[in-house]
Task: inverse folding
């Protein structure tokens, strides 16, 4: 049985991290600040690009759900929506491609540094302002 072979501790840890990331993302944005470190810690030998992609999949679904809810309340031109989605997709592909060409030994420490340095700026700019300016999460 496959389930008997799975170590449940990482599954529970990642589930809790995903729940926390979703809650933070829904409130002020920036859920990737929780989910990316959890993925990096759980899978230390996995290529960073794969982990970023895993985080991005979760982020895309959360953003799509939130965007759909927003569009039911505010009318935006379809051309604007398509332009923004297209630009975001291109930016994601360029970023993902860049990560695959960088040495793994350099990406991990820099990623942790950036994730530790970012929250004070991220949360001080959006808490209480009614904005959640996502920047790559």
Result:
């Amino acid at each position: 049985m496959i389930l008997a072979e799975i170590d449940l501790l990482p599954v529970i840890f990642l589930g809790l991290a995903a729940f926390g990331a979703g809650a933070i993302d829904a409130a002020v944005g920036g859920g990737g600040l929780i989910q990316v470190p959890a993925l990096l810690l759980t899978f230390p030998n996995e290529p960073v690009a794969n982990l970023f992609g895993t985080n991005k999949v979760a982020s895309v679904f959360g953003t799509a759900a939130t965007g759909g809810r927003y569009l039911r309340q505010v009318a935006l031109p379809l051309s604007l929506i398509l332009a923004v989605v297209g630009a975001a997709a291109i930016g994601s592909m360029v970023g993902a491609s860049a990560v695959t060409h960088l040495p793994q030994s350099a990406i991990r420490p820099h990623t942790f540094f950036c994730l530790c340095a970012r929250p004070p700026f991220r949360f001080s700019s959006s808490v209480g302002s009614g904005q959640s300016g996502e920047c790559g999460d």
About this structure: Residues 2-124 form one domain. The chain has a mean pLDDT of 82. The first helix runs from residue 2 to 5.
